[in-house]
Amino acid sequence: MDLKNRISQHFEDSAEALALSTKILQEPLAKATFALLQAIEQGNKILACGNGGSAADAQHFIAELVGRFERDRIPLAGIALNTDTSILTAVGNDYGFDQIFERQVQALGMPGDILVAITTSGNSPNVIKAIEAAHARGMTVIALSGKKGGAMNEALTSNDIHLCVPHDRTMRIQEIHILLLHILCDGIDAFLLGDFS
Ligand SMILES: O=C(CO)[C@@H](O)[C@H](O)[C@H](O)[C@H](O)COP(=O)(O)O
Ligand SMILES: [Zn+2]
What we know:
This protein has 197 residues and is α/β, with parallel strands linked by helices. It has helices spanning 3-41, 53-66, 85-94, 102-108, 125-136, 152-155, 170-192; strands at 46-50, 78-80, 114-118, 140-145, 161-164.
């Protein structure tokens, strides 16, 4: 396959993955939007975490809550747990890398808060531990995964919402994760700004 064919193949794969995701994720996305709105209306906050590209996604999402998405609205309470290098290095160094998010959830999480947990494999130990800590704090988890969900399947409860992208490649899963996060931002704004009234 030459380079141009390789490039075309990416677009074709991406379109196929998107079409399949639309069918599977429409309902859980609606549930996730309502869960986020409920937390916002109750004065709760949203925590988000992930590793590598998913860390970028977590902070991207939180920036759109605290700042704005497409239109002006009130600032929404959210914290990305992968952004404070002092916390990440101190907790990683003193306790272990698997505890970098767990410890922050234990410190900051309150009943009714939401944890947005992002892992393409579903297997990152620090994200799984954050989910367990969120449950212990009375929080609901919105999990973004792929590759059939991995260890997340066991970590999540029936009260949580699992957005599992039906694909096996990390890059494709990440591309769809950012779409899902933008869909959640759009849904939140549509309700807060009265698009459905
Ligand atoms: O962005 C990419 C690959 O596209 C990488 O940085 C990737 O996020 C890292 O390898 C992560 O450590 C993968 O973790 P996870 O998605 O399995 O939780
Ligand atoms: Zn990447």
